């Protein structure tokens, strides 16, 4: 049941990203969450994360389409690690549209009011170990 809740949260977050509803997206994160914006650059806290998503939307010409493929959720008590094939597509007004699958890692923590919140959002996954 918990895995289903987390899957639904991730789908709702993807929907908020795709529709650029960043106010709703902030409900997905803990107050002190970390978003990996790109290797070497993180946004910490809801205000910084919201600003990062605005910049990301601009970078991708407001055409970002994020979805999840396979998900594996590992849970221990109030903590869950999500391993995901995250599909990121966009039209950057170039000959070839942006279309990648990232091996993402997300960490969720259940709050005192029993709500799952994302505390680490790392769509780059272990690619952070191999900077280009």
- Rough shape? globular
Mean pLDDT across all amino acids: 94
Please give the alpha-carbon distance between the first and last residues: 39 Å
Q: What summary fits the major beta sheet? A: 6 strands, mixed
Q: Give the DSSP E fraction (strand runs of 2 or more residues).
A: 35-45%
Count of discrete domains: 1
- Residue stretches low in confidence (pLDDT < 50, at least 5 long) are none
Across the major sheet, the strand order is 2-1-6-5-4-3
Q: Over the alpha carbons, how many angstroms does the gyration radius reach? A: 14 Å
Helical residue percent? 25-40%
Briefly note the CATH topology name: Nuclear Transport Factor 2, Chain: A
CATH class, named Alpha Beta
Order of helices and strands: HHEEHEEEE
Q: Which architecture name does CATH use?
A: Roll
Layout of secondary structure:
Elements: H1 2-18, H2 22-25, E1 29-38, E2 41-44, H3 46-59, E3 65-76, E4 79-90, E5 98-110, E6 116-122
Parallel strand pairs: 1-6
Antiparallel strand pairs: 1-2, 3-4, 4-5, 5-6
How would you sum up this structure, described in words?
The protein is α+β, with helices and mostly antiparallel strands and 132 residues long. It has one domain: Nuclear Transport Factor 2, Chain: A (Roll). It is built from 3 helices and 6 strands, in the order ααββαββββ. The chain has a 6-stranded mixed beta sheet with strand order 2-1-6-5-4-3, covered by helices on one side. Strand 5 and strand 6 form a beta hairpin. It is globular, with a radius of gyration of 14 Å. The mean pLDDT is 94.
